[in-house]
Amino acid sequence: MTQAATMKHLLGIKGLSEESMRLIFQTADNFKQLLNSPVKKTPSLRDITVANLFFENSTRTRVSFELAEKRLSADVLNFSSSSSSVKKGETLIDTVNNILSMKVDMIVMRHPAPGACLFLARHVNAQIINAGDGTHEHPTQALLDAFSIREKLGDVAGKKVVIVGDILHSRVALSNIFCLKALGAEVMVCGPPTLIPRYISNLGIKVEHNLEKALNWCDVANMLRIQLERQDIQYFPSLREYSMQYGLSMDVLNRLNKEIVVMHPGPINRGVEISSEVADSSHSIILQQVENGVAVRMAVLYLLAQYRLQGNTTA
Description:
This protein is of the alpha/beta class. It folds into two domains: about 5-135 and about 290-310, Rossmann fold (3-Layer(aba) Sandwich), CATH 3.40.50; about 140-290, Aspartate/ornithine carbamoyltransferase (Rossmann fold), CATH 3.40.50. The chain contains eleven helices and nine strands. The protein has helices at about 20-35, 60-70, 90-100, 115-120, 140-155, 170-180, 210-215, 240-245, 250-255, 275-280, 285-310, and strands at about 50-55, 75-80, 105-110, 125-135, 160-165, 185-190, 205-210, 220-225, 260-265. Strands 7-6-5-8-9 form a five-stranded parallel sheet, sandwiched between helices. A four-stranded parallel sheet has the order 2-1-3-4. Strand 5, helix 6 (about 170-180) and strand 6 (about 185-190) form a beta-alpha-beta unit. It is globular, with a radius of gyration of 19 Å. The relative contact order is 0.16.
């Protein structure tokens, strides 16, 4: 049996094998067919209860997970820290253990602290899926991005992918780098020097500070937003200047010597990292990413649930 089918948690992409990723994609292929059929629901998780614990704001990821769970017929509990006992000083472990005492089987968690999901996995008896932990990782976003590239271009191996923007504060960038490299893609990051971490070249990827050079190199451009909520100092003079240097417009695309695929994990800051014209153009697969997110998250939930249903309930 493959690693993915015997894995209790999904805490990050790092350490996940290529075989495991390909199993997730194959399972997602089947679920995407289901989602495009008249009957969009399966009883696969009928006896499983999933709690969605979001300690940070989210729209796409939270809704995508909730829809994936409901399509699999799971019982779903949604938790928001803003209206919980966390505001009264309750610890993360106490909060989760109280929820688990209500016979919850799986936890999908987003948390502002890097490593929070790993910490929780070591202290509670439930399956944990990382929906984003600080600036660390966002594994299901990386999986759905790679799945979308595979769907559009036939395979990820051998493709050239540039990740543009706020690499320093992005959990999406790190998970994408791990995922794309494991699947055989060439990876480059592009952005202002102040938003590129010093360690990044140690990951075996290219670094470029000129957007047009990066775009002429790549097959796929994944445009990231500037994460102002995670920035405690000013990393560039203004959003206008950033957009002039690193914003993707139709003028920039038209100057390239080839066509490329444009992606964005959302939410989009239109007119900053990407223009509305590009986001809504035939180059863009942004809405396909959103659609694929449900199928990929269904696959992850299903494969992890198989571990529990096989009787592996302890860490």
